[in-house]
Every structure is written in structure tokens, then in C-alpha cells.
Design brief:
The protein has 3 helices and 5 strands. A hairpin with a 7-residue loop joins strand 2 and strand 3. Strands 4-1-3-2-5 form a 5-stranded mixed sheet. Helix content is 27%, strand content 32%. Helix 2 crosses helix 3. The chain has one domain: Alpha-Beta Plaits. It is α+β, with helices and mostly antiparallel strands. The N and C termini lie far apart (31 Å).
Length: 125
């Protein structure tokens, strides 16, 4: 059994989608990839303009490992990054699940590329 957190972000109304994407993928995602104990991470841009602008998926061994990661200095920086006055985030919601890890292992960040994350784009139809 493992633990998956899904974080849905909506950009501020006065920010362009491209500006949100640059901040989220080029600044915030590499910071989140440094969370201790993260087993996998995926940042998904939603490009249909209805609903959240991005969905982050983070996998940990357990809820305790997730909570411990966000209690560290890195975790506090990740959380604060989306809340600071300069952030491009209008709203964020977190959904957490205990999930079976058999049959699917999330792609871990590439250990040879500091701050690398798996990026994906999704569209709702």
C-alpha cells in the first residue's frame, strides 16, 4: 500500500496560462521534487481553461511519510511557495488517497538531473 496526494491548482484571474505554467513547471515543480521520501511526482497542465490549471500527483510510502516531508524545511518552502504574495495561485485543494502500488509504479524524478520532474499535459473532453 502507498499514498498518493493530488493537488489541484487554479491560477489567479489576472495571470496568463503561460505565466502560470512557467512558474509551476520551472520553479515550483523542481522544489517539490526535493521533498524527502517522495517516490514519484507528476505535474499535469490542464489546457481546456475550465477548472484547475494544474494537477500535481505525488506518491509516498504512507500518509506519515507525506506529512513528515511537508514538516521539513523543504516541505515548508514548497507549501509557502504557492501561498506567497507573488504566487500565481488563486486556489489550491489537496486530495489524498491510500493506494495500492502494485502494477503501477510512478516514474521517479531522474536522479541524474537535479530538480527533474515528470511533466505531462492533460485535456478534459
Amino acid at each position: 500500500m502507498g499514498f498518493k496526494a493530488m493537488i489541484l491548482l487554479t491560477r489567479r484571474d489576472d495571470m496568463a496560462p503561460e505565466q502560470f505554467a512557467r512558474w509551476w513547471l520551472d520553479e515550483h515543480a523542481p522544489l517539490a521534487a526535493q521533498l524527502p521520501g517522495v517516490r514519484g511526482i507528476r505535474f499535469n497542465l490542464v489546457d481546456d481553461g475550465d477548472g484547475p490549471d494544474g494537477i500535481a500527483e505525488l506518491w509516498f510510502d504512507s500518509r506519515d511519510a507525506f506529512d513528515a516531508a511537508y514538516a521539513t524545511e523543504v516541505g515548508k518552502r514548497v507549501a509557502a511557495d504557492a501561498r506567497n504574495d507573488e504566487a500565481l495561485v488563486k486556489s489550491a485543494s489537496r486530495q489524498c488517497y491510500s493506494v495500492g502500488m502494485t502494477g503501477f509504479e510512478p516514474a521517479p524524478p531522474d536522479p541524474h538531473v537535479p530538480g527533474a520532474v515528470v511533466r505531462a499535459g492533460i485535456s478534459r473532453r
